Amino acid sequence: MAAFTDSISLYSMCCLLLLFICTTLFTFTAKSLGFSIPFTNSGSKIRAPPSPPALPIIGHLHLLGSVIPKCFQNLARLHGPLMQLRLGASTSLIVSNAQVAKEIYKTHDLNFCYRPQFGSSDYYQYKGSHFITAPYGPFWRFMKKLCVTQLLSPSQIGRFTHIRQQEIKSLLGSLLLCSSEGRSCDLSFKLTALTNNILCRMAMSTTCDDEEIHGLVREFLELGAKLSMGEVLGPLGKLDLFGYGKKLAKTVGKFDRIVETIMKEHEEKHDHMKGSEGGERKDMMDILLEVYRDPNAEVKLKRNDVKAFFLEILLAGTDTSSVALQWAIAEIINHPEVLKKLRAEIDSIVGTSRLVTESDVPDLMYLQAVVKEVLRLHPPAPFALRQSAQDCNVNGYDVKGESRTLLNVYAIMRDPQAWVNPEEFIPERFLDEINGGNGIGSQDFRYIPFGSGRRGCPGASLALSVIHITIAALIQCFDWKSKNGDKVDVEEGSGFSVGLAKPLVCYPMTRLNLV
Ligand code: HEM
Fold first, then answer.
1. How far apart are CA 489 and CA 504, in angstroms?
2. Residue 278: helix, strand or coil by DSSP?
3. Membrane-spanning residues where (predicted)?
4. What is the DSSP letter of 104?
5. DSSP annotation string for 332-400
6. Which stretches of 230-302 are DSSP H helices?
7. Residue of 209, 176, 155 whose CA lies nearest to 473
8. Nearest CA to ligand 1 atom 19
9. What are the sequence ranges of the domains in the chain?
């Protein structure tokens, strides 16, 4: 993770340098530079959101620090909860408090139901098959309905409880080995393997290890992030000067070949079992292939739509859940009083003679509060990216159609106007709510780790199932010690994501062997 974010910082510096050099050779139009045009489509003068003073060409790039969500949070303190930043040739609106988030997510939900397109999409074999960045239209609505009613529905998640339990037991087994040999373990690596394996098995009944899928998804994430940073170059980004676009196309090509093979295996299994489908558990690929074959489906899915969906959920769902788990263990090690309470709760509800299961989670109130607090303080997706369709008015300012909008989820959930001691890790703040008190309702836009509105995260229930049960099992079975002494170094990684800056390496010490 650290190497990845460092390489992005290096890349952005190269972009900056290149931008300076190239501006002596090229004359940009005002539009490509992202200068705001002070007129709405109807021709009247607009009141644009505030901006810090900008430098020619680079705009506000010089104001960026290493942890970007934090840096935007600091800028918002000076320039307000809706501000406009120009990073080279790319202009974005930044939303930094719950009131403005509510306007985007509720008042203007439909208008902001779009996502910006990034440079990486030019090199994407599945162009036109995106779900995450699909415009709000029939294809997106159809896929969203499939997610909610079938692919990521509570009953589909429930059907695969055994997969999560098996993968967690296999993780516990490897930790027991580390413990018996007195070795430290790289928990960041192990937790990412866990979330990848769970999602791959639920999606297409295969593990990522066997199929190299995990490596390809990681490569895609890294290259996609670098290409997106190239946005600051405007039209120059299209030249793919660093060759990242070609590499990305190659990565997707490899992914495509693997998933095509898995699809064919699923199709053969289906043909073989025709008429005897009885009690077979359908994975997500079985469900999508059924829709793909259905001549009367509301939307006719293409083969690429199916493959793109798997790439996208792996991109959206594995690192995010793993990052949440890493932060959770780091914070629990650094707060022994939280560990003590958590363990006392698990021991009293579950006991010490069997492993905690997902059906115990509704009774583990403190565990739920810990997870909520982890996602508040360390949102694995610190920005929700949206784009407006038409001109509108937000927080008293005129916002033009097609405005790229970043909701700074990180800043919103650390806003001192909305939270007491926002920078502190205090799970107790959520106990009232979990017990049915006056806490945070679904319409409270100060708590939005999964975004909100029509385009809110469809994988939230699955992510929460994995996070709850994994933390509970790791705390029930082990005591933990950081490799670097008493406390885990909780420095945040650089770049757009806020994972731990360094891998979480610690010593598990067996407390209960329940595998
Ligand atoms: C801790 C884990 C996760 C976090 C924090 C997270 C967070 C988010 C956020 C903030 C968004 C943008 C919402 C918005 O624009 O308002 C999002 C979208 C999305 N997430 Fe997640 N997510 C997680 C896990 C997952 C999982 C496990 C899956 C799938 C298996 C998933 C699939 C998606 C998809 C497909 C979208 C795009 C939805 C759309 O555009 O309609 N996520 N997620």
1. 9
2. coil
3. none
4. I
5. HHH-HHHHHHHHHHHHHHH-SSS---GGGGGG-HHHHHHHHHHHHHS-SS-EEEEE-SS-EEETTEEE-
6. 244-272, 284-293
7. 176
8. 457
9. 138-510
CA dist list (Å): 243 to 237, 238, 239, 252, 267: 11, 11, 9, 15, 36
Separation of CA 457 and ligand 1 centre (Å): 4
Which of left, alpha, beta for 351 (phi over 0: left; psi -120 to 50: alpha)? left
The single-letter DSSP state of residue 49 is: P
DSSP bridge pairs for 376: none
**How does pLDDT run across 172-223, given as a tens digit for each residue?**
999 999 999 999 999 999 999 999 999 999 999 987 665 588 899 889 888 8
269 CB neighbour count, 10 Å cutoff:
13
Q: Is the CB of 450 under 6 A from ligand 1?
A: yes
Nearest to 306 by CA among 267, 251, 274: 267
- Backbone φ and ψ for 396, nearest 5 degrees, come out as 85, 0
Round to whole Å and give the CA distance between 415 and 200: 36
Regarding the beta carbon of 384 and ligand 1, being less than 6 Å apart is answered yes
Q: Which amino acid is at 353?
A: S
pTM assigned to the model: 0.91
Q: 398-434 burial string, b = 16+ CB within 10 Å, else e?
A: bbbeebbbbbbbbbbbbbeebbeebeebbbebbeebb
DSSP state of 166: H
477 labelled as ligand-binding? no
104 in ligand 1 pocket by Cβ < 6 Å? no
CB 93 within 8 A of CB 405: yes
Q: Which region among 195-204, 210-219, 433-442, 455-464 has the lowest average model confidence (pLDDT)?
A: 433-442
Q: For a pocket test of ligand 1, which of 285, 457, 461, 462 has the largest count of ligand atoms closer than 8 A to its C-beta? A: 457
CA 386 to ligand 1: nearest atom: 15
Quote the CA–CA distance of 150 and 129 in Å, as a whole number.
19
Report whether residue 317 contacts ligand 1, using a CB cutoff of 6 Å.
yes
Q: How far is the CA of 336 from the centre of ligand 1 (A)?
A: 31
Q: How far is CA 322 from CA 187, 194, 204, 248, 325, in A?
A: 10, 8, 20, 23, 5
CA 69 to ligand 1 centroid distance, Å:
18
ipTM exceeding cut-off 0.90 for this assembly: yes
Q: From atom 18 of ligand 1, which residue's Cα is the shortest distance away?
A: 457
Q: Is the CB of 387 under 6 A from ligand 1?
A: no
Q: Are the CB atoms for 409 and 416 separated by under 8 Å?
A: no
| Ligand 1 contact, 321 CB (< 6 A) | yes
138-510 has which fold?
A: Cytochrome p450 (1.10.630)
Q: What is the DSSP letter of 84?
A: E
- Nearest atom in ligand 1 to 323's CA: 1
19 has a pLDDT exceeding 50: no
Pocket flag, ligand 1, residue 198 (CB < 6 Å): no
| Cβ of residue 116 lying under 6 Å from some atom of ligand 1 | no
For ligand 1, atom 1, which residue shows the shortest CA distance? 321
How far, in Å, is the centroid of ligand 1 from the Cα of 449? 9
